[in-house]
Design brief:
Elements: E1 10-13, H1 20-34, E2 38-43, H2 49-62, E3 66-72, H3 75-85, E4 88-92, E5 101-107, H4 116-128, E6 142-144, H5 148-156, H6 161-167, E7 170-174, H7 184-190, E8 194-198, H8 219-227, E9 232-236, E10 243-246, E11 252-253, H9 255-270, E12 274-278, H10 283-291, E13 295-299, H11 303-313, E14 317-319, E15 325-327, H12 336-350, H13 353-358, E16 364-371, H14 377-387, E17 392-394, E18 399-403, E19 406-412, E20 418-425, H15 428-448
Parallel strand pairs: 2-3, 2-4, 3-6, 7-8, 7-9, 12-13, 12-14
Antiparallel strand pairs: 1-5, 4-5, 9-10, 10-11, 14-15, 16-20, 17-18, 18-19, 19-20
Helix pairs in contact: 1-2, 1-4, 3-5, 5-7, 6-12, 9-10
Bound molecules: magnesium ion (MG).
């Protein structure tokens, strides 16, 4: 992992580690690296979005790059615009983090997040401060454009509008006061759904609830789906790349359910194809993909890694268990507008969401952690590999050990001084038992270091 960029760009607390000095320096580094060209810059709805966008944009123009200001937009709309129109995209967003956070993320000219190697090149320039400043006559311009309509129409063109319209679905949408407020309700309305919105006025204080679409944060949405007899509920995070669903019975569906459902549907439709997902995803995805005649490919954790692998393998679908779904026939990035339209299409054609979900294979997951200082993480992984060398395991990301009763994934956290332990089995007791046993082993191995 690079020093500056994390799994999803550079993030921090506004005016502490995420300030205009960093934004300016990073903007100059990005512009120097790009060496001319046009950059699209968009933001989510956070209060610090103008401050950071203007700093990054000024810095880019100082290096001779032109900037297109896209305003407040979902990250997938910036990605689509970048793919079609510019040499690079920048999303000013901290995704699902609390309101005091913000971040800067780069998007390559194909619409997919920059690979780590390119981030490292930018980082090198950032730390060396070896910036290429343009002559007075060559500094860049700032223009503006609005990519919202283009994004909405692009999503709508990928689904069967007539079937959705005929089904007369009632959908409750919770945009977490984020950038999805500009797109998700409008997509569903255009497609003929009856739409009721919650927290769908852009507001960077997040007055409705925190931005992460967890069951706790979505209580109002769940209650409203139940009390209004809606067909489904849809929630976005602040930058609207992730979508989480509530079924017609008012049940919160963990992201692995919709990931599994969509993987099954797409592989069935195509009659095969490759699906890509991180090693942390539920076995239910592998089960449905294989039984539908497709191939499942596991990657390390992180949506840019999944997206890049999808491109390389010509995959038909991919995604993460957190509600980040990637549709190869639209664009290679997490795309909440597309996810909403596709799930609504599925419900319109095949029936109640609860029934579609209830027939999927079901596994229980146990998540726990062990504190581990960052400087011991590497040594601990080496020792754990030695400890489990006689077991059936892969090391695509951390250590995933396969047993008859399930699997255990042990991996260092990318953001905190700890190791994460995920255990999956057919029932909760077994998953818990696996988790407990491996937590103990990780502690023992760590103590010996
Ligand atoms: Mg997000």
């Amino acid at each position: 992992m690079s020093e500056l960029f994390g799994t999803n760009g550079v993030r921090g607390i506004v005016n502490e580690d995420m300030n205009i000095d960093l934004a300016t320096r990073l903007g100059k580094a990005i512009g120097t690296w790009l060496n001319g060209g046009t950059v699209a810059v968009g933001t989510d709805t956070r209060l610090s979005n103008h401050m950071l966008k203007n700093a990054v944009s000024s810095a880019l123009t100082s290096t001779g790059c032109d900037v297109i200001d896209l305003g407040e937009v979902p990250t997938p709309a910036i990605q689509l615009f970048t793919r079609e129109n510019t040499d690079l995209g920048i999303a000013i967003t901290a995704s699902h983090n609390p309101p005091q956070f913000n971040g800067i993320k780069c998007i390559d000219d194909d619409g997919t997040e920059l690979i780590e190697g390119k981030e490292e090149e930018i980082e090198k320039i950032y730390f060396s401060e070896n910036f290429r400043l343009a002559r007075w006559s060559d500094v860049g311009k700032v223009m503006s454009d609005d990519p919202i309509r283009e994004y909405i129409e692009s999503v709508e063109s990928k689904v069967d509008e007539k079937s959705i319209r005929d089904a007369e679905l009632k959908v409750i949408v919770d945009c977490a006061n984020g950038a999805g407020s500009y797109t998700t309700p409008y997509i569903l309305k255009d497609l003929g759904c009856e739409v009721v919105t919650l927290n769908s006025q852009p507001d960077g204080t997040f007055p409705g609830h925190e931005s992460e679409p967890t069951e706790d944060n979505l209580k109002d949405l769940i209650d409203l789906v139940k009390s209004s007899d809606a067909d489904l509920g849809i929630a976005n995070d602040c930058d609207a790349d992730r979508a989480i669903f509530i079924d017609d019975k008012g049940r919160f569906l963990h992201g692995d359910k919709t990931l599994t459902l969509m993987a099954k549907k797409i592989v069935e439709e195509i009659g095969g194809g490759t699906v890509v997902t991180p090693v942390s995803s539920s076995t239910s995805v592998e089960d449905v993909v294989k039984s539908s005649g497709g191939d499942l490919l596991y990657t390390a954790v992180g949506s840019p890694i999944v997206a890049r692998e999808m491109i390389d393998r010509g995959a038909v679908f991919g995604g993460e268990e957190n509600g980040g779904l990637i549709f190869a026939d639209h664009q290679y990035c997490r795309d909440a507008g597309m996810a909403a339209a596709k799930i609504v299409e599925l419900v319109a054609i095949e029936g109640h969401l609860s029934e579609l979900v209830d027939v999927l294979p079901c596994y229980a997951l146990d998540k726990r952690g062990v504190g581990c200082p960052d400087d011991l993480k590497g040594k601990l992984m080496d020792d754990l590999k030695e400890r489990f060398k006689s077991e059936d395991y892969n090391d695509v990301d951390g250590l995933k050990i396969y047993y008859d009763e399930g699997w255990v994934l042990i991996r260092p956290s990318g953001t905190e001084p700890k190791y994460r332990i995920y255990s999956e089995a057919e029932d909760q007791d077994t998953a818990k038992e696996l988790g407990h046993k491996h937590q103990k082993i990780v502690r023992e191995v760590l103590e010996k270091i």
